[in-house]
Amino acid sequence: MTSSKSFDVIVIGGGIVGLASAVAVLEHHPGVRLVVIEKESKLAAHQTGRNSGVIHSGLYYKPGSLKAQNCRKGYEMLLRFCQEELVTHEICGKIVVATREDEFSGLEELARRGKANGLAGIQYLSASEIKDREPYCAGKRGLYIPQTGIVDYRQVCEKLALRIGKLGGEILLGEKVENISSTLGREQISTSHSSFDAKVVVACAGLQSDRLATSVSRDLDLRILPFRGEYFSLRASAQRLVKNLIYPTPDPTFPFLGVHFTRMVDGSVECGPNAVLALAREGYLKTDFNLRDIWETISWPGFRQVARQHWKMGIGEYKRSIFKSAFVSALQRLVPEITKDDLVPTDAGIRAQACSRDGKLLDDFEIRTIGRTVHICNAPSPAATASLSIGEHIADQVSPLLKS
Question: What pLDDT is stored for residue 1 in this prediction?
Fold first, then answer.
């Protein structure tokens, strides 16, 4: 080790949840010595910087869940933050489309959840009303959700990083955390270059979150399963086919929303993602694989349960991954005029999906305090939208630990 530093709070992870948590702790505890440690050479290198940039409204989530509560609160906080920091964003609304009659009940459930979560202005759409909003979209019925928006979350992270500096915090890049341990009431952090200690640690490690948690809790009852989401973008000549955001009615038994269309803040349109099991936790290419990652996935008892339960859907996702024509067919359910030639491959993302030992894909956020470390064990979508609210929740968890 070349150096050793002491802090009051160490935040592990330079994605949007880690940065938002750091800001909240600094605002709640002026003068606290805080550092954010990120293993990459830049912030927002993984889930945050590779998502579709949607500001989620809170439509999908079980009323009363952490997702629902934090998404609605975080939505308002994010909009205020973007206005204060001059972050480019737009509230453009979206439609959720049922293309078959057996999906009508799914729309009704979404409307019920949205209203229970405080969304006003949800509208049912007929086939002709869908055309009024999205002229090239096919659907028998739809829902219009006015609150949905778009933003570049990397730009949000840049502004969060600046705020951390103004509040007296530090950010260190290129420091990969290798171990967490406890000694004499303080948490010891070993990284690839240095050693640190702190009174409290906040672990927002995304795809590596379970590994950090198991370093302090060997009997952790969940593991991260990495799902790669593959995207295409529309060629400029085809962008006229999508005005804003078009989503399918989701399968309630699967924690993914299905391939959809998203207009980005730069005017481009993304299509996707599918959801295939990744052979490396940070394997963004189809050819990437990591033996340790593969073994930890297939040896986890919960994964075998997931595979048995969802194998048919998994085959469909892999089919869309291997055959572009299958991906196009899924998109054509929503916009029939889309052709294979309209699609250009773009960057993939990987979702860190927590799975319990008995095979449940955790739907809600999962935040656990183990000793003097607060672990964000599961924070999939809408974590980016909810990040500022999650940060306040984390700050509330940190406060009694700092005082003890």
Answer: 43
